[in-house]
Write a structure and sequence with these properties.
With 380 residues, the protein is of the alpha/beta class. It contains 14 helices and 10 strands. Strand 1 and strand 2 form a beta hairpin.
Length: 380
Amino acid sequence: MSSTEALPGRARSSSRALRGLGIAAYCIALLLGFDFIYSNFFCDEDILARIYVPQYHHGFAPNFAGHNPWGTRSPPFYTDSLGFKDGAVREVPLTSATRRILLIGDSMTEGIGLSFEDSFAGMLQQLGQNITPKTEFLNAAVASYSPSIYYKKVKSLIEQGLQVDEVVVFSDLSDVFDEATGYFCIDEDPRYLAYCRPEDIVKHKRTRKTILQRNLVIMDKWIPIIKVYIRLLRTGGKIIPLSQSDTPKEAGWTLPGYDIGNSYAPLGVEGGIARSLQNMGKLAEFLKQRGIPLWVAVYPWPPQLEHNDRDSRQIAVWREFCAENCKGFIDLFPTFFAEKDAHEDWYKRLFIVGDIHFSAAGDRLVFREVAKRLLGGESR
């Protein structure tokens, strides 16, 4: 066959390929269009409840009812009149005749991907309402919180008249990263305020994603699911904890040999630790002046369990802080390592597969240990 005779065949192949690409592009555009319409006119997901708050950066809108999609899960999501994740939309008075404990932390304490009832905060609330005397647990946690926000939010709530008897901060592994890299615009210290950029006043780098989430909710929901399946394909279908290559940079400051590069800029790891301690110190002093005891709890991420970080720097930092500033320090590392030692499938049992967040079973483990300390009469 001559080259001139082959040209029509090549042209037909090119035409078919272009048609195929056109159809694929049309289908993608159609899906994105439906996603955009659903996201803006029919969606009732929790992203709509996540709002900017000038005093402490971000929080939840009060009295919200919807859902909290996370991977393949979509549990109900409610906030109360104070803007706290709760079991239902309800009015919560600023004062109470019963003992009140305020919980605060980030997404782990929020119970992301879980209903309120399946979160450890919800379990504590249920238990507290069924014992004598009653204890009410309020959950002020929201994803991506860190010590700057713990201090500013608790201070703002109490100055607005919220009455609490104790405060428990669930300090997350990511706190040091967050304090090293952001939330400078809400910091009272001029050294850190100097790093504030105008665009960060409303939009922090972690909340910019919400623009996409608000407009393409379905696509955003499927991205983590696709990542899980890709990971399963790489491991031959075996569910394993996050590998070293998959380990989030937020965990790097506690893992020997982990190359963090410049991911903790501008303050670096040591600067992030120093700022974390400074803001937690401000919180401790604020509460002390009002006679409100402070507790700090720490727990591991899957990479710390996988890499046997039993004597984690995370524990040492907050144990030392609590020796001078807290009513009690709750170290949940031994509890989680005991589960790891006893169960080969510990990751699948305690965490959402493909993620670092607790499953309902992981939250129940936290609940049992925290309940012993807060409701069992122990002080340390």
